[in-house]
Amino acid sequence: MSLKPKILIAFYSRTGVTEALANSIASGACEAGAEVRLRRAREFVTEDVMERSPGWREAAEEMNRRFEAPTEMDAEWADAIVFGSPSRFGAPAAELKAFIDSLGGLWFQGRLNGKAASAFASSSTTHGGNETTILSLYAPAAHLGMIIVPTGYADPILFEAGTPYGASSVSENVARAPSPADLAVARFQGRRVAKVAAALRGIHDHDASAT
Fold it and tell me: Could you state one GO cellular component term attached to this entry (predicted)?
């Protein structure tokens, strides 16, 4: 059987900062031989609410043209899921959390047990909640039976940017694009998750062939 890992990157992004990290994680995973699905969680507020924040609706429409919404089928297809979100008061955005909450059926059937999970985040300000947001995403991953894969300090780039929990970026309240070091951490995270997912898939395939 092929050990080519399948990676779902399920993220929410409003201004494109988290999207940029997601794209770099995808690049790293592809470098490691993975098949990748990039999916953007959707808003569930009304357009009136979106209009209160200039550019929100337009940016959402543009990103939604580029990315499909994540589904249960995507999660079941994947060998690993990488969750990404801007920090909202130190926690994941409701849009991404709504997708995670939709996975209850797969949880009940044990269909996510043994898959790899990782996470990344962005914030508007320094100390704006990136680490707590990533750690908050690992709690539901544990409930879903997934195997958590942090970045650690497994690559020298982690001493320049990111966190030991996952890639991150600070946009300084102006939606500033992630730095080259931020993106390098994200690519490393993609490679690391792909390698772990491939190893886990090899174990699962071996167990299946032995039964």
Answer: membrane
Rounded-to-integer distance, Cα 61 and Cα 156, Å = 37
Q: What is the pLDDT of residue 2?
A: 56
Contact (Cβ atoms closer than 8 angstroms) between residue 168 and residue 24: no
Q: Which helix (H) or strand (E) holds 7?
A: strand 6-11
**Which DSSP string corresponds to 189-200?**
HHHHHHHHHHHH
What are the per-10-residue average pLDDT scores of the chain (211 residues)?
85 96 98 97 91 91 97 98 97 97 97 97 95 98 98 97 98 92 98 97 67 56
Which residues of 89-208 form beta strands (DSSP E)?
91-92, 116-123, 147-148, 168-170
Taking only Cα atoms into account, the Rg of the chain, rounded to an integer number of angstroms, comes to 16
Looking at this protein, which amino acid is placed at residue 32? A
Residue boundaries of the structural domains of the chain = 6-210
Residues in the chain: 211
Dihedral angle at the C-alpha atoms of 195, 155, 82, 68, nearest 10 degrees? -90
Give the up-direction half-sphere exposure of residue 31: CA atoms within 13 A in the CB hemisphere: 15
